[in-house]
């Protein structure tokens, strides 16, 4: 196991409907859309395995059957836990509900329907080396559409001092990547505030001055529209992986799934979180 990520657990948010991707998401779940032939959620899980994370929770709701067929496979046995939501709890609500599955170390929280190409081990290392008093580290990226993102302002040390969620004419292009490393203190706060359901608008503002940042200089992309998903097929990957290899029956079945042809027929375009 990579020492930098020892005792890190992860919560991958994968329950959304992906309505902007319709009609693709009428047929297939957004977190399992193929990117370079691989399901997006598979990319996240392979990356976490590569850096030594051995405890992951994935929430599911929309297209539950397809998500469960993907996740309930031997390759994920004993390290990936499925959390089924009868109703959507919100990003903070899911994290709160999963508290009992998490160990006492840092928790990586990520929106797993975004494509993130980076060295996650460096992100974890930056969190390990955070200044005293910091309780979280936020991954950031530079966006071309700041009005559609959560824009962060930081001080000279990279600490978040202001946050503007999808504001008109926000101050800058440095955006929240919706990937965090969180200390147990943040989860304790969530337990004490059961009415908070959204992480970016309900939790981040409460910890301004105590959240560090790590900047992703590679690729961070929302695949939420057909054009964005088409563009993601050409995004470079700077990493190597030592994730488990070899296919199973699901992999073989997925290779022939019509979703590949549907994605291949998309027009080119681009977009970001």
Task: Summarize the entry for a quick read.
26% of the residues lie in helices and 23% in strands.
Q: Which strand order do you get reading across the main beta sheet?
A: 5-4-1-6-11-8-12
Helicity, as a percent range: 25-40%
Q: Termini separation (Å)?
A: 31 Å
Strand content: 15-25%
The total tally of domains equals 1
Structural class from helices and strands?
Answer: alpha/beta
- Give the strand tally: 13
What is the CATH topology? Spore Coat Polysaccharide Biosynthesis Protein SpsA, Chain A
Q: What would you report as the Rg, rounded to the nearest angstrom?
A: 18 Å
Topology:
Layout (H helix, E strand, L loop, with lengths): L8 E5 L10 H4 L6 E2 L2 E2 H11 L5 E5 L3 H8 L8 E5 L6 H7 L9 E5 L2 E4 L2 H9 L7 E7 L7 E5 L5 E6 L8 E9 L1 H9 L6 H4 L8 E5 L3 E4 L3 H7 L16 H7 L3 H6 L9
Can you characterise this structure?
The chain is of the alpha/beta class and 273 residues long. The chain has one domain (3-264): Spore Coat Polysaccharide Biosynthesis Protein SpsA, Chain A. It is built from ten helices and 13 strands. It has helices at 24-27, 40-50, 64-71, 91-97, 120-128, 184-192, 199-202, 226-232, 249-255, 259-264; strands at residues 9-13, 34-35, 38-39, 56-60, 80-84, 107-111, 114-117, 136-142, 150-154, 160-165, 174-182, 211-215, 219-222. The strands form four sheets. Strands 5-4-1-6-11-8-12 form a seven-stranded mixed beta sheet, sandwiched between helices. Strands 2-3 form a two-stranded antiparallel sheet. A two-stranded antiparallel ribbon has the order 7-13. Strand 4 (56-60), helix 3 (64-71) and strand 5 (80-84) form a beta-alpha-beta unit. The longest helix is centred in the N-terminal third of the chain and has 11 residues, at 40-50. The radius of gyration is 18 Å and the shape is globular. Residues 268-273 have low confidence and may be disordered.
